[in-house]
Amino acid sequence: MTTSRLTANHWGVGRAQVVNGRIASVTGHPDDPDPSPINGNIASSLNGRARILRPAIRKSWLEGNRTAKPRGRDAFVEVSWDHALDQIASEVQRVRGDHGNESIFAGSYGWSSAGRFHHAQSQLKRFLNTVGGFSFSEGNYSYNAALVMMPYIVGPFRQHVAQATRWTVIADHSDLVVMFGGMAKRNTQVSDGGIATHRMQDNMRKCAQNGVEFVNISPLRSDTDPVLKAEWMPVHPGSDTALMLGLAFVLWSEDLLDHAFLERYCVGFDHFEAYLSGKADGIPKTPEWAAGYTGCSANGIRTLARRMAKSRCMISVAAGVQRADYGEQPLWMAVTLAAMLGQIGLPGGGYVIGYGVNGNVGNMERLFRWGSLPQGKNPVENYIPVAMIAEMLLNPLGTYAYRGTTRTFPDARLVWWAGGNPFHHHQDLGRLHDAFQRPETVIVNDLNWTAMARHADIVLPVAAAQEREDFGAGKSDNALVPMHKLADAPGEARVEYDIYCDLAARLGTKAAFSEQRSSLDWVKHIWKQTQASGASHGVDLPDWEAFQAGDVIKIPDPSPNQVFLAEFRSDPVANPLPTPSGRIEIYSETLASFDLPDCKGHAYFFPPRDLQTGQGDLYLLSGQPKTRLHSQLDNGDYSLSYKIKGREPVLIHPEDAARRGVSDGDIVELSNARGRCLAGACVTDEIMEGSIFLWTGAWWDPDFNAPQFRDRHGNPNVLTHDLRTSSLSQSPASHSARVSLHRFEGDLPDITVHDAPTLYSEPGRGS
Ligand SMILES: Nc1nc2c(c(=O)[nH]1)N[C@H]1C(S)=C(S)[C@@H](COP(=O)(O)OP(=O)(O)OC[C@H]3O[C@@H](n4cnc5c(=O)[nH]c(N)nc54)[C@H](O)[C@@H]3O)O[C@H]1N2
Ligand SMILES: Nc1nc2c(c(=O)[nH]1)N[C@H]1C(S)=C(S)[C@@H](COP(=O)(O)OP(=O)(O)OC[C@H]3O[C@@H](n4cnc5c(=O)[nH]c(N)nc54)[C@H](O)[C@@H]3O)O[C@H]1N2
Ligand SMILES: [Mo]
Fold first, then answer.
1. By C-alpha distance, which of 729, 738, 49 is closest to 385?
2. Which residues of the chain fall below pLDDT 70?
3. CATH (residue range 154-190+203-356+562-587)
4. Residues 237, 238, 242, 244: what is their CA dihedral angle, to the nearest 10 degrees?
5. Is the shortest distance between the CB of 444 and ligand 1 below 6 Å?
6. I want to staple 101 with a disulfide (CB 3.0 to 4.6 A). Which of 132, 273, 700, 753 is the partner?
7. What's residue 763's pLDDT?
């Protein structure tokens, strides 16, 4: 029997064909003008060989000699649910009793799956809050430098992303859009929690029709849609601040500044001016100076600056640009440059950080809040900046700098991860592998035997989004989507809520955790909350049964003509910014008072660290993959279809390839002092000379017998460093690595990570 049912994912709404209780295929919703091809991974990955089918315990751990084999290299024993849950309950009690709840770390960063109720982290956190809480993490891997930095200089970043100038306004008012880090369509296929309509393609077409001009400042030409016919200005990674300083110098030296804007809306331009002109340090930041760092010509910089000053100009900065060494600086410099041009708050002018970080930025915002599972109260106060996970594990109770203060790491003895993959998201995986040897117990819930699951002591197999009843509603989308249970979870995999109910029963907190509701009761309860919230905003939502039987519900953007910071511009006294001065801080007394070596009182250029230490001869970029969401469903058909002999493709310029005797389709080895991996060469002039691009998301597949545990598959994070952006924000800096590359001549090893690890059966247990 075949049925066609709705499903929602971070990459969009899909229609699943279900044949005899199995998902056969998923295609985009017919009303979506540009559905995501990532749907093409779902059926094959959910039914793939790497699916975790039964609870499992690491072999040496189970045998009582927990350090006999390192985590990540051990085999597993499949056990009964009762056995696994008894072990977890006793570990939670032991660690709480001996060390306190602060020693349970459950920051558990990651994107997990769409669905308002079955959200992996919310479930885990609610459960742990019923037993005294846990240490957690703050921020994200996406735009952490912006989250920490922007409140000092303009205001809260998340709010500002929601208030991004709408694309309709750009199409109607902008003459020129200057994009640092481009605006890759592949990235706009995705939005946290869901995206019912992919609008970017139509936005771009409308801009092209209206004659809006685009400049793509990026090492990658394909960071823009070809319909824009964007001018490509390739720049070396990590040099955007230098380029913006060169542009600023032209505005300043040719008196193209908006003095009135700087006077009325900003503070501290004089401090910055002393740095720009060279008065402060003897180095004028001329276009010639900038050319030396960026690879752009001084004349090109001059021409662009004059063009920006003459046009209604929007400056856009991709989040990827701040996911790099000193990633706070290009943000501050973009604000400074936009302030010098004086168009902030005007339709189609000013700046926006984060167009392209998801498909809803500049298109859509929620009118009201959706219902959600309450997480309860966490009595533990200690947290870490999210990208300090390895640092925390390696330095229990150690101190570190953050936001101008000194903080202390928790002594994490038990680590629990649900809905994220640190061996995807974190940098310097060799170091992370070492760090994960330190805790006493590691628990992981996942669908698949990812590298993170392989670093656990206790692994819990969970149902996927398509294997449970829920509804989807994106964090920045205005659509509500029924999410039907399309198939049973395979093997003994279970819905996470039911797992926590059983654990809570063991720990005596079942009533507090479940409030006597089944998972379907909760979903309906959260729907009711959503209905009530809608009603208070004049939106009439159907009851649960009617919603389930129907199609996607779409609610329009509450501010379709949004112009970022328009209110501030119209009256800066009545609508001050939430900064200490109430204005844009081109110079920040607060940041200057922290007296940090890597973030000063105004925007400042620091060359990337690997350049300073002479690492490798190529810049390595590692942005988001077109073929999947991060590492999710990497073993799916669509993701596999882009691999080269099973390896992740690495883009390399024809000159760089020729110099190394590399041809298109060859297997190459990338290396530096931190690690090495194999990848498949894709020779293309899409990438500038001197840079290579390896997509994130290939599951880490280390060969522990090869030099530096060579990864067979092409995970860039074996090469990236874990030094983070700066001591101000401690954000991930994955785009700043230098590497060497050569043709791989050895025997090509098989990919092993798309199969389960060695599994034994518990004595007395069938199969
Ligand atoms: N080099 C480099 N590294 C990067 C980046 C980069 O640009 N370059 N980008 C960074 C960014 S922006 C991000 S956001 C991170 C993303 O990093 P993550 O969010 O950690 O990556 P995902 O692959 O989405 O991991 C989600 C995991 O949750 C599992 N999962 C899905 N649904 C469920 C569920 O219902 N329950 C449970 N228990 N598990 C589930 C999936 O199988 C998967 O293993 O990566 C960062 N890492
Ligand atoms: N298909 C798909 N879409 C996604 C995701 C996914 O996994 N798959 N992940 C989502 C998530 S979690 C996030 S946070 C967003 C991320 O969205 P972004 O942060 O915008 O994405 P990135 O791919 O990291 O970076 C964008 C581009 O910046 C360029 N770039 C990198 N370093 C530099 C630099 O130093 N200077 C300049 N000028 N350019 C540079 C690279 O060429 C890269 O293509 O994407 C989201 N969208
Ligand atoms: Mo992200």
1. 729
2. 1, 765-767
3. 3.40.228.10
4. 80
5. no
6. 132
7. 79
Strand, helix or coil at 707? helix
Distance of CA 275 from the midpoint of ligand 2 (Å): 30
Task: For CATH 2.40.40.20, list the domain ranges present in the chain.
Answer: 609-743
**What is the reported pLDDT for 215?**
98
The closest residue, in CA terms, to atom 26 on ligand 2 is: 320
Q: Would you state the pLDDT for residue 4?
A: 75
Give dist(CA 594, CA 557) in Å, integer: 40
Predicted pLDDT at 93:
98
Q: Report DSSP letters for 101-124, one per residue.
A: GGGEE----S-----SS--HHHHH
**Helix (H) / strand (E) containing 136:** strand 136-138
| Residue range(s) of every CATH 3.40.228.10 domain in the chain | 154-190+203-356+562-587
For residue 220 and ligand 2, the question of a CB distance below 6 A is answered with: yes
Residue whose CA is closest, atom 15 of ligand 2? Answer: 357
Please return the burial class of 281, using the count of CB atoms within 10 Å of its CB with bins 0-12, 13-18 and 19+.
Answer: exposed
Best substitution site from 177, 179, 183, 218 to test ligand 2's pocket, by max atoms within 8 Å of Cβ?
Answer: 218
Q: Which ligand is nearest to the CA of 720?
A: 1
What's the distance, CA 702 to chain centroid? 23
From ligand 2's centre to the CA of 159, what distance in Å?
Answer: 20
Query: What was the pLDDT predicted at 765?
Result: 65
Residue 313 Cβ contacting ligand 2 at under 6 Å: no
168: three-class secondary structure by DSSP: helix
- 609-743 CATH: 2.40.40.20
* pLDDT reported for residue 767: 47
